[in-house]
Amino acid sequence: KGNFKECINAGHFKKDLNLDAASLMLWSQVHGLVTLYNKERLNIYADLDQKKLVDDAFGLFFNAIKNCLS
């Protein structure tokens, strides 16, 4: 939550951003990706580099946040 506040103060996100909702959204996304990876639930992507897939998925999510919340 504090990191989002810093980003708002730096002008990266809208000033009216709901900090609780934004921090929960980010936490759940990261937690979900890490849990899927650690529990080996990404085996349905066996032909892909799963670490790179998680990294790419987080990058996509981060870009979506950056574009929608700023």
Characterise this structure.
By secondary structure, the protein is an all-alpha fold. The protein has helices at residues 2-9, 19-38, 50-69. Helix 2 packs antiparallel against helix 3 (50-69). The mean pLDDT is 91.
Summarize the structure.
The chain has about 70 residues and is an all-alpha fold.
Features:
70 residues; mainly alpha; 3 helices
Secondary structure: number of strands: 0
- Which blocks of ≥5 consecutive residues have pLDDT under 50? none
Supply Rg. Answer: 14 Å
The major β-sheet equals: none
Helix content: 55-70%
Strand content: under 5%
Mean pLDDT: 91
Number of helical regions? 3
User: Pairing-aware structural class of the strands and helices?
Assistant: mainly alpha
SSE order: HHH
